[in-house]
Design brief:
The structure is a homodimer of 756-residue chains. Chain A is α+β, with helices and mostly antiparallel strands and 756 residues long.
């Protein structure tokens, strides 16, 4: 035992006070926490309480010399800090007192402070010149429990599928030659089809279990094996099979669906054209009905009107071709027609030309190609005729009279694929985050003079800040996409127009998030992230195109914004502004009255961590942007500016609205889910993740909130500090949080993510 | 001739008024332009002037019905808009008047308005329901002239080198197999060496022309052929050869430099270790001097202490190995030693193990590998002994007594490579921008009901906004890096510490810019950008690692910030905080007094476009961040927080300062250059590019300026609008601006960038 000038009562608080005061983030609500703890601490005399209270006065803080004395007292104790203790700082304090004054009990009030202030070892493990016993990750939360929460009611499907991925056929390897890679992926697709996974979303009569939601989970998990596998699988069963299922009728189902689900009939989805990427309504391929022969003639009119980037084009026997259907000389709009491409010997049929797209930035296991049709004839029955048919008398018939509505109804049935693409992007982000964080929990770099070991990468504030919010967002987006698919599959809600708009926006923000995340992970792993063996490189190449296919993100956000502007009443439409304009008048009045900015400079923790504040801020932005957009468009129209031009002039404004709405949607969906969580401990964790995501997202638009006067400078700064702090608070749990993504060990092949 | 209610005098102004009023960006200074034009228009009667003035009152704007009448009048004229006219709107106005009233002269005042307001065809080509004769690009500026400005005094070197790249050996092709690709690149490197390019930066005695600045230009242009070529070239001649040139003495130069420059001696630069990426001082490889044999023993002590990612490792005969030099049992710090790796039969020498790094995200034409040394002995003479030597008597000697200073002096000699990496990144960005913009000038998408042709991608405001500022930044960064290399090479400034710090920051912001730009271009080209044939995919993979190698960007920005904090007086150092702390006291006082925020809500064009405003804003941010950082660190230190911990706590703040300083440096360097430009027309263009870059960059930190009260909300919004507007103003010249990058036709192989 050495001497100390402080009494035992005071001494036990010294390490806490030193940590608190050397940190410059103390706010009123946090001082309250300490005051309450002291107030109810029965081990303290009134005199000690008075002294401790005095040292809590932010207007008259303890002198620097006092702080130095505290630090000296702690350092001289030579007590070792053990991070693996449940309450490391409280236990450390107890040992410091015991060192100076003999055995002393562990104080419950200190535990309270430690928990409530969220003091984490990395807040103080450099502050004292004492030895630190490190552990990389806390076991306070359980990864398996978290994974179970994320899987929800789909646990069985997911677990079975993950087990399936352990088959050697999915063993990850470097594939540089596209022909060889495509064969590997084709074999994997067939393997999964044989197990029944291909037909999962189809009706039971055709080998399926009618589980589109489970399909989406499986689709995401496929990314853990390989991106090309996901996309090839999606093309075969989701796009080609999906078009037969959703746009065809019983005769098509009976003839093709079973074989498609088993991957015995390989097919492709021929929509996009070289000259018309985003403008599907403007495609040039024609499907002309010839009443004499009762056949449909598929034709590519110009050299840039070929089908482009068609996945599975080299392996397919058949294509679902989107073309302008012309019956009796009248263009009835875009319809899908099944067109055989190759014979049993896999030779191209007459009039069909297929050209390999060659190597791509990623997804080289998918055989993308261009297809030209030169007067190719198919029977009338090959028209997928659920929404538009050619009757036996050779006349066109559709129950949906409005051609616009018909077009968007057809396209709408395929929106499930768009959710799946976002899910796959999310899966890629989860994988990259897991690699980067496992690496950061092992890799050390630099050190100070006191410690022998260098610091773990994850213990650098910059490293925490670059990765932790992205982990939090993965949780939010997971829940948002899960609920979106649930609604999409809900047969009690037949009108999917609103969901289509929502999916358009979510797909955009989430695939951009996925790309940003994978890039951040690449850089966070340094040179190791650049090596193919560590998997991030492939993910980067594969996920990149997710921002473009299944709808270009920019175009989708514009659609999304138009949906918001028209209160989801207009057609899901890229060029038709009429419907939007019609109801603009109502919108403008509706939205204005509800805007009521508050809390401009409220910065206490309770407020900043309250989901009500986040929701209000998200909602305010959506409403405000809607209002100002509507006003601008109305003014243009009043001046006689054509509506096409008016919408062009506000294009960047529309993008902002599309994003704002999608951000709000993702977060409110997540909050609704967290509200239903039963377990308080995990609920608190999910709440914290949501808070980090929300504050981080609001920070992205901080300049806008400041411009609007919705936030003052003090609040904006406080949010930035809270984001950094939340990252620190989550530091001990970051390992468990990525393990909670549930990526099976047999898929986690990156050497830097594996303990050797 | 039809009738119109307006007089000819009024009528000629109608198209202008309609364009002006349907746009909502009119500010006081712009109204002044129109007022002045009218005031001095001798063709106008006083009555007409009064009418036109009345229609300029923003407090009492013309009625919507008036605007509609204007539009009707214009549309009814059926006059065709010809974009290729020098003054398209003025010419259009003249024709409208002539249509209604008979031949009417072209009004000079209208031309003035058109020029001074920067009214571009895409401001109005949808506004009137008239036919538009399009041209994609204006010929007002000349691409060759711009290229000449960018090349400056290095025109001959650049032009010769670009011609050299037309040799079939540089013909771009897809290379998937790394062995084959590496051989292709090796042959290219040898080809260039034979032409004398390898030795360019070496003294004339060794086959060179002592032109490091020209070398940097060549290095950037090499990216137009292939990224692997640049990097392989840089490793051989810049890193390996550079270490001999800069760290060795005459005996090394005589023995190796000529052969190195000719690529007859292939070498690698073995600095980085698996366990020590960014912490070079902490590398573990030892070089122990054995006085008995007069030899140095190179040894890799642990399994993670191998050299890692060593470019040219598979092809090299020799390595420049960085190791802890131990003489007489004393560690004298990191030194470089030449170590033969292979014999003439290309077999590894005893004790040396090399392992291929395998496939990477990009740069697969570069043979990166790991190297282990097991007690490998080399003669004492192989120590590159310019800054530290082992004398004949076996004692260590260095003129630089301070080991820290010695270490950073050695590393400092290699800073030229860091500039070259930034240049190469910039070259990649220029290439991607050229592809994306040439594509956007050809590709059409969607349209309105009036026009037959769909719009060009580049005519969408979102597309302009995503690409134009990046083009502007390429100009700014080009100039900044050029001037930086000039200073680095200036023998009259022997102390390079400040330049090292500046290079650290510029390398970071520019390689990040390059990656963001290439990604934006990929997405802007949609699916076409994903195909390898269009070159953006390879650039994405190749340039990605530029953010990590030659110094991790995050680590470099921290160094840069410490340089700013210490006013460039401290060692260029990642771990030593002492020097920084010593002068912090002075800094804090110095900086505070000079902060004087002004113009909080000044939004007129003259102010917002004035470089003085931009410089003031950049400078304010650097100073303010320096001040607040210094205050925070001082407070921590006062409380007894160890300096290592104090710097950790402010790490994200340091990053912000590093970026802010680098942004300021790039822009002020650019402005200094523009000031020297002789040709007024081109000078105005460069000024406009600088303004766009500056406002765009300031927008990135808008939330900070708002938080600080440096800008009010109105100003922040005005800057955003000005950025969009400048993009529109530059629209007709965007084709010339990318042609000005001077990428030779034989390198521009992307099919989407070529006119077929």
């Amino acid at each position: 035992m050495q001497e100390s000038n402080y009494s035992s009562e005071i001494l036990q608080y010294i390490p806490f006070y030193y940590v608190i005061w050397s940190d410059d983030l103390l706010t009123t609500s946090e001082i309250n926490v300490v005051q309450n703890a002291i107030d109810t601490d029965k081990t303290l005399s009134d005199k000690s309480k008075a002294q401790l209270f005095a040292w809590l006065d932010t207007y008259n803080p303890p002198a620097d010399t006092e702080l130095k004395k505290w630090k000296q007292t702690i350092s001289n104790s030579s007590v070792k800090l053990v991070e693996s203790e449940t309450y490391p700082l409280s236990a450390f304090s107890q040992k410091v007192v015991s060192h100076y004054k003999g055995n002393y009990p562990l104080n419950e009030q200190l535990k309270q402070i430690e928990i409530q202030l969220g003091i984490q070892p990395n807040h103080y493990n450099h502050l004292f010149d004492v030895a630190v016993s490190h552990e990389a990750t806390s076991s306070f939360y359980n990864a398996h429990d978290i994974d179970t929460i994320l899987k929800g009611k789909h646990a069985k499907v997911v677990d079975d599928f993950r087990k399936t991925l352990s088959d050697p056929i999915f063993k990850w390897d470097v594939h540089r030659n596209k022909e060889e890679f495509r064969q590997v992926v084709l074999n994997q697709v067939k393997f999964l089809a044989n197990k029944g996974y291909g037909a999962m979303a189809y009706p039971e009569a055709y080998g399926g279990i009618n589980d589109m939601e489970g399909y989406a989970y499986m689709f995401e998990n496929m990314m853990f094996a390989d991106g090309s596998l996901s996309i090839k699988f999606g093309v075969q069963f989701g796009l080609f099979g999906g078009s037969i299922q959703k746009l065809g009728t019983k005769k098509h189902h009976d003839q093709y669906l079973m074989e498609t689900g088993k991957a015995k009939l390989l097919g492709c989805f021929a929509m996009t054209e070289t000259g018309h990427g985003s403008n599907v309504r403007g495609i040039k391929t024609t499907a002309t009905y010839d009443s004499k022969t009762d056949q449909i003639i598929i034709h590519t009119p110009g050299k840039n009107d070929n089908k482009e980037y068609i996945g599975n084009a080299l392996h397919s026997k058949m294509a679902s071709v989107f073309a302008q259907l012309i019956v009796n000389g009248k263009n009835e709009g875009v319809h899908a027609i099944l067109v055989p491409l190759r014979n049993n010997n896999h030779e191209l049929l007459p009039g069909i030309l297929v050209e390999d797209n060659g190597y791509k930035l990623g997804l080289n296991g998918v055989d993308n190609g261009k297809i030209w049709f030169n007067q190719v004839t198919v029977p009338r029955e090959n028209l997928l005729n659920k929404y538009g048919d050619i009757k036996e008398d050779g006349t066109y018939y559709s129950e949906i009279k409005n051609p616009n509505k018909r077009f968007f109804t057809m396209l709408g049935t395929l929106v499930g694929g768009r959710i799946c693409v976002a899910r796959a992007g999310l899966g890629g982000a989860k994988y990259a985050l897991t690699v980067a964080i496992k690496h950061a929990l092992k890799r050390r770099q630099f050190n100070d003079s006191v410690k022998i070991q260098e610091d773990l990468l994850i213990d650098y504030p910059t490293h925490q800040l670059r990765l932790t919010p992205l982990v939090a967002s993965a949780y939010v987006y997971h829940v948002a996409l899960d609920k979106m698919m649930q609604q999409y599959c809900d047969p009690s809600q037949p009108d999917k127009r609103k969901i289509e708009t929502q999916v358009a926006g979510l797909k955009s923000i989430i695939t951009w998030y996925a790309n940003d995340t994978i890039q951040e992970c690449r850089e966070a792993c340094g040179g190791k992230g650049y090596l193919i063996e560590n998997r991030i490189a492939d993910l980067k190449g594969d996920v990149d195109i997710f921002t473009t296919f299944e709808g270009d993100n920019t175009v989708l956000l514009l659609l999304s914004a138009k949906g918001v502007l028209s209160d989801f009443k207009s057609e899901f439409n890229s060029a038709g502004f009429t419907a939007v304009l019609k109801i603009l008048g109502i919108q403008i009045n509706d939205k204005l009255t509800t805007i009521n900015p508050v809390y401009t400079n409220k910065v206490d923790k309770d407020h900043l961590y309250n989901p009500k504040f986040h929701k209000h801020a998200f909602d305010y932005r959506t409403r405000r942007l809607t209002y100002s957009l509507a006003m601008r468009i109305r003014d243009y129209i009043k001046k006689g500016v054509p509506s096409y031009q008016a919408f062009l002039k506000v294009q960047t404004h529309l993008l902002a609205l599309g994003k704002a709405y999608s951000n709000e949607l993702a977060y409110t969906t997540y909050c609704d889910f967290v509200d239903t969580m039963a377990n308080d401990k995990n609920k608190a964790l999910f709440l914290k993740l949501g808070t980090l995501h929300a504050l981080y997202t609001l920070r992205q638009d901080a300049e806008w909130y400041l411009e609007q006067g919705y936030m003052g400078g003090t609040k904006s700064k406080a949010i930035r500090q809270r984001v950094e702090r939340l990252c620190t608070e989550l530091r001990p749990h970051i390992g468990v949080l990525v393990d909670g993504f549930g990526i099976p060990d047999h898929c986690m092949t990156a050497p830097i993510a594996i303990d050797h």
